[in-house]
Specification:
mainly alpha, single chain, 8 helices
Length: 162
């Protein structure tokens, strides 16, 4: 939990510094004090989701830039616990309906969590390509050529074995 808060705080600090804003300026933009922003960045306090949204919006970023996979998993777990409590109440009121609603909620939560993980993977892929100076198109073309060469090598190897 502490690592997650610290990681989120580091991301906020990086976004803020990239935007050339002080903690005081960011605090004013999101309706929080400078000391609150300092606590967020140090990972000393849990940041409500609506505050994370305001931070991302204020710094011209994306909420996904601030959320870690662990945060999303924690959020999904909390939502499932709440869904279970709702399911219990629905079961008492109308058996069958509660189960269907909770199953739908769980599938939705899982899909959102998986989409976040996919977004992280895409960012990492783009970062790697950028660090080696390739565009997606260049990488795709290179991949096709390598796949073709590999396929030919496998065919030659298979003929030798026959």
């Amino acid at each position: 939990m502490e690592d997650r808060k610290r990681e989120t705080g580091q991301k906020i600090r990086k976004m803020r510094e990239t935007a050339k804003k002080t903690q005081k300026e960011l605090g004013a933009m999101i309706g929080r004090s400078e000391s609150s922003v300092a606590k967020y960045e140090a990972g000393l306090t849990e940041i409500p989701l609506n505050v994370l949204e305001r931070i991302a919006e204020s710094l011209d970023g994306n909420l996904n830039d601030l959320l870690s996979a662990a945060y999303i998993q924690n959020l999904a777990s909390n939502m499932i616990e709440k869904a279970d409590a709702i399911q219990y109440e629905f079961r008492k009121a109308a058996p069958g309906i509660g189960n269907a609603m909770v199953d739908l909620a769980r599938m939705t939560i899982q899909s959102l969590s998986e989409m976040h993980l996919m977004a992280d993977a895409i960012k990492k892929y783009q970062s790697i390509l950028s660090s080696i100076g390739l565009t997606h198109e260049e990488f795709s073309e290179m991949y096709k050529k390598l796949s073709s060469v590999f396929k030919q090598e496998v065919e030659v190897s298979n003929r030798r074995e026959d």
